[in-house]
Design goal:
The chain has about 300 residues and is α+β, with helices and mostly antiparallel strands. Helix content is about 25%, strand content about 35%. The chain is built from 6 helices and 16 strands. The strands form 4 sheets. A 7-stranded antiparallel beta sheet has the order 4-5-6-9-10-1-16, with helices on both faces. Strands 13-12-14-15 form a 4-stranded antiparallel beta sheet, covered by helices on one side. A hairpin with a 4-residue loop joins strand 9 and strand 10. The two termini are about 40 Å apart. About 30% of the residues are buried.
Length: about 300
Amino acid sequence: MKRTLHAYQLHAHVQNAPLDDYRVFFEKIKKVRPSKRSHQIEDRHIFLAEISIHKDFILLAAEDGDAHTKPRLYNPQTNQERIGDKGDDELLSTRTHAAFDLRTRFVTVEFNQRGAKATQILGILREIGSRLQGYAGLSLEMPPVANEEFLRELHKFNRIRVATVQMVEPNVDWEDCADKLSGMAKESEAKKIEVTFTASRDGSIAKEYGLLGSIQNLIRRGKHIFNNVVVRGSRTDSKQEAMLKLHNHTEQKKVEVAKSLVDGYPEPKAVQQALLQFLEQLAEGHPAADVENDDS
């Protein structure tokens, strides 16, 4: 079975200070009863059903279920359908797997069309974590990991008319970004920045220094703090105005996983293994992201 895996990097703060121990945080989340590890969106209930803590990584599994829907079964031989049985406390659910690297804070998430999405898993962690003792004022952000293609596409622009950037507070400190924007954010006690730069009528926003230069430098250093970057302008290979979005150039991996002989869904251990392998590839491709070796 084919699956697509997406990559993110987690940034957490408590009372304006960086979260210093992610393992302890997830251990406390795990102690919460599964029935309380939930997030509701209209009739859908999303549960953090599984938390498995290991030396260097954590495995997560979220169940996305509908309390009011029962399985409808169809028999093409008889052209009959029936409604399957479901207990009062049971949900018709779909499982989504994720993995978190304690060394790099990279997160890999299985994309499941009917299951919980990365932002919803993050929402559960926010909701549960903010209720834990010692985590008042918890802030969690999980921007995507930009790939090299984004940097290559950016260099194809010969004129950049507008650049819009959405940033989150880095796990270490705003000073880690070493630019004026981040300095203003720290002074303002802000958690996010969204700013738009516009060039003069016949001018262009610089690519190699200033805002876009800082963005490229941070990405190359493994600092993924951008929820999105949108660039508009002209390219050498087109006469029409072009637009580049970081969201369209993020790290992802398509994998083939075994199908379970029990229920026909992807084999959980196969998905987990693929997620862990992707984490290792990210650490190799973005070595500066290893926070244990980061002196910045």
